[in-house]
Amino acid sequence: MSETDVAGQLAADFAGAWNKHDMTALADLFRDDATFVNVRGTYMRGREEIREGHGLTHAGPYRNATLSAEVQDVREVVPGVIVAHLRTEVRGDERTPEEVRHSLLTLVIERQADLWLIVTGHNTVVVPPPG
After folding, report:
1. Do 46 and 72 meet the contact criterion of CB atoms below 8 Å apart?
2. What tens digit of pLDDT does each residue of 85-129 get?
3. Core-most of 25, 62, 107, 108, by most CB within 10 Å?
4. What separation in angstroms does the CA of 112 have from each of 3, 22, 23, 79, 119?
5. Cα–Cα dist 111/81, whole Å
6. Cβ(116)–Cβ(10) under 8 Å?
7. Which of 52, 59, 62, 73 lies closest to 7, judged by CA?
């Protein structure tokens, strides 16, 4: 499996878990000791915090939200470690139902035996330039 295939599968799995609002499935994409920074700057450490942190928003304003994710670029930095950038769109945030939020999700992905897991992720809202 190429690094692009790995990143594409993780992007599909991430979006699939998000869209089912299954935060256990989403957290299972991460290593036990993974970290994640969401678009609001909340730092989550460990699979359980990642599950709980996403679960709070999915029980609230994202309860009906959907996410799409597309691989923008991928690079294997050392054998078995990939850095991927995903472009994402979230629709259906109850706070701003008509808005489509774009973000750039950066993931570090590591192969453990035959399993690829996210080591860390950082999600950043993409804001259009002024004018």
Report:
1. no
2. 999 999 988 888 888 999 999 999 999 988 999 999 999 999 888
3. 107
4. 14, 23, 22, 11, 11
5. 7
6. yes
7. 73
Domains and CATH numbers, the chain: 3-125 (3.10.450.50)
**What would the pLDDT profile of 51-77 be if each residue is shown by its tens digit?**
999 999 999 889 999 999 999 999 999
Q: What are phi and psi of 49, to 5 degrees?
A: -65, -35
CA dihedral 14, 16, 17, 19 (to 10 degrees): 120
pLDDT for 38 equals 95
34 touches 20 (CB < 8 A): no
Owner of token pair 């035996």: 113
The whole-angstrom distance between residue 33's C-alpha and the CA centroid of its chain comes to 16
Global pTM exceeds 0.85: yes
